[in-house]
Amino acid sequence: MSFIKKYIEQETINRRNFLLAGAYGLGGVAATSMFGPGMARAALTDPAVAWSYRNRTNPYWNEIVSGGEAFVESLGKSKDFLTHLINEGSSEKSLADVKAILAKTNGNLALAIDTNDAPNARPVVEAVAAAGGFVSTLWNKTDDLHPWDFGDNYVSHMSWSDEGPAEQTARILLEAMGGKGGVVHLGGIASNNPAIERLNGLKNALKDYPDVELLAAEPADWDTQKANQVMSAFLTRYGDEITGVHCANDTIAYGVLEALRAEGIDDMPIVSYDGNPQAVELVAQGKILATVFTNPHWGGGITAALAYHAAIGTFKPSDEPHEHREFYGPTVFITPEDAKEFKANFIESVPTYDWTDFWGPSNGQIMYK
Amino acid sequence: MGTVLTRELLVKWAPLIVLIVLILFFAAMEPRFFSMRNFARIGISSAPALMVAIGVTFIIIMGSIDLSMEGTVSVCAVIFAFAFIAWGGTLASVAWLALPLALVVGGIVGLINGLVHVKLKIPSFMASLAMGFVGTGFALLLTGGDRIRVEDELFRGLLTTRWFGFPIMCYVAVAFLLIAWFIQTRTTLGRNFYAVGGGEDLAHASGLNVNRVRVMGFALAGVFYAVGALLAVGRIGIAETATGSNFMFVSITSVVVGGTALWGGIGGVWNTLIGVLIVNVINNGMVVIGLPGYVQDGVLGALVIAAVVLSTDRKSVTFVK
Predict the structure, then answer these.
(1) A49-58, A199-208, B186-195: which has the minimum mean pLDDT?
(2) Do strands A109-113 and A48-53 pair parallel, antiparallel, or not at all (unpaired)?
(3) Residues of B with CB under 8 A from a CB of A
(4) Does domain A48-160+295-330 have CATH number 3.40.50.2300?
(5) Of A67, B12, B116, B243, which is most buried, counting CB atoms within 10 Å of its CB?
(6) Are A250 and A275 in contact (CB under 8 A)?
(7) CATH code, A163-293
């Protein structure tokens, strides 16, 4: 029986060694983190680059990611160098993915992320900073969370304020309606910030057009088929009273156009938002009066570029002014007059961007209400 | 005996009564609801959903469930659009072959679905749900997230050409409804669905190859999903990964509201027609009477429960799972 005894003895020693080694390792980590997240590492060498976003079925996120891929290609790497973290609309998965990749890369990470909802931004940023990685966020964060509170590790946040641009497209619509009649609004998912801002934009514009009535505003969930059905029902309820349609985005506008086509209506004034290629084509044909392009390709690329270049030490985020840490993304109006030119410049040939011109096309520091 | 008969009769006709009551209710709230043009609009929104719901009706009659419709619809829509455009882009050319191709693709996806369920002995719920994800993923792989526009005027005639006020897609849907009715009542396969759903052990003991019936059922459902996909593309002129979105909820709800029991053996395609119309009348009616958006989902849920309570005979069921 002595061999059993020997085996147990050996295992006990092994376990003790393992536990000791583990404790030593933890102590080492704790000692490093005592110097604070900004101090942990001044610059990384060859960090992994990851983009965390909702899904690829949506043309908008598809454009975002194409920008991220263009950026890693500009580094002389293949597209596959960019790691895709897809959260499928779940904040929990978004955070879990981030923690997993931090563990895998040991914090040697440049992360671009839309955290799916605003409250999720803080745990994500804290996790990345604690591991010594670098993160840039897009769209979602709470108003009290600021990059400059995290030294260098929270590099930047980019968002868009849609109220102003949506108001401008609404004015184009209301002018086309001759300043009278009835308008319907088909919105995004009711609780989404852009959906709320885009409807507010319409309401602001309507204040100057007292003869136009807002007949109804219904959520169409950014969905073509749902928009199609909601528009059909609007036609039943209001019929000829509808003389203009304000859509919260392009995918909604496609559904609206088809609902109108089914009724043989092809001259209804419509405006939309996002500047997807198909919508630009429809603007060129005069079927949509205006849309707003937010250049998601550039947004996706530059968000990854900011995190990467901060990580390798090209620039030091804490030396930059606040308007370089929190800023609005670009907005470009597309109307029938300039649609052809826009198509040639942005769609038929995707421009090659200088991914170190971090703030060129941006639109000023984010203002909180 | 008299009361039992009335109860049976009531249950049999309850879905239709629910539909009529809903139509009268919405018409009373907003007279414009009750117009030919609005019925045509309800028809347009019902046609693709009806095809998908008929497909899943066969599966539910067998006592199984199929949740692969969203993926299957997307795959069929995308492959149809690619083939249609590659082969000429108009129905007046050989591109019309893309129509039968889509049906074949739907059948193959359904066949795989059925084989996974039967051969690997995975419950239909899980097998089909997984196949649905595979389908959505495959459609995404094909499109890379882009949308494919189908602009051919002839094909879009499904929506734009009207006979007696209704667009052609409504007549196509009715034609396939009649085909489904024929399969259900006049073919061995159709009657075997009821045999499997009514008592699988008994059917098996009687010498019926239950596995074969199941696989055939899933393949048949796939073909109907493909028809639904074609009508969905005809309706908005776009094929994309999201073409299949929402079909799962609408079709399963419609089948159940129409009076086909989830435990199998009861119901049929006419029940499904009524169910699809109930769901679409509710959806259309709520916007038409101007119900605020945020209460619509809640009202839909409550109405679905009410419709199921009225339209299924739950007395014969000893337990619910």
Answers:
(1) A49-58
(2) parallel
(3) 30, 32-33, 35, 37-38, 41, 44-45, 136, 140, 144-147, 149, 156, 159-160, 167, 232, 235-238, 240-243, 245-246, 283-284, 286-290, 293-294
(4) yes
(5) B243
(6) yes
(7) 3.40.50.2300
